[in-house]
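USER: Write out one fold?

ASSISTANT:
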Amino acid sequence: MAALHVAREAVASAKWSAEELRDAAVVLGTSRGNAAGWLGPWPGRRPFKLMAASNTIHSEPAAAITIELGIHGPYHVLASGCSAGLDAIGIAGLLVQSGVVPRALAVAVDLPLVPCLLDSYASSGLLASGCRSDPYHPSSDGFIPAEGAAAMTLESCRPGHPSLLGYAANSDASDPLGMPSNGGASIPLIHQMIARHGRPSAICPHATGTAVHATSEPAALNSVFKADPIPSLHLLKPFIGHTIGASGLVESAILAAFLGKGKLTPNLPGRCSTGSFILPDTGLDASGLLFKLSHSMGGHNALLVLAPP
């Protein structure tokens, strides 16, 4: 099971003992839980009869992680669409920062590559017509779907590792599929986090490539960042595709790995930018705050503020 596999890897990397695990919290983000396991079962998706009932509920991956790892703290499951993975990190961070738990495990998983799910995206006009992901290109017309899972451990103090400085979320309350064309509530969300933490030197946007998103997210970014210094943009979906509810955490894990080495992720060469933003195709030095954005169907927006060690 993908969620359990990445959870084990994260815990091993953090070197948490059995006693430390016992008091941890688990926060899992997903758009559909284990839906793929029963909509289109195959051996890697646990089709055996014992899991027939539990595979149909969103909480099964989180329950499996607590059972297998001996975690007795709370677990929560967030199904906020494409923002779920980023929300999982944010809520896990809030649990630790508020003292509810001493440490937390944030996990995200999504397995959308089954015919009925892909058909639903296609019928809504959300899938790309080609195989090249260029999210801000004027002809961009959809995203390239992918499957993914990732996990991150969060503690109140871990010297030498990237820091989660802030998290916030809001809603557009506008449309069941996309963002408002003018950028919507993402604009005040970004302003809010700048007021709290300062101006970012880099941004990893959601950048799915749908026709609506190719217009609305640039509108939000250009509305906020009108004057120098303009942050650099770092687009990850052209590399890995769109892992739906897992995307925010998968991309944050990649960003954290680069930040841990004092670097920012490069972009694939030849991708279109927006306004005055640059898309560097080499790994720049990380010298300030990094904002990570996610947006989901129904108009839920989430933002993390990360910093290098």
Remarks:
- The chain has a mean pLDDT of 92.
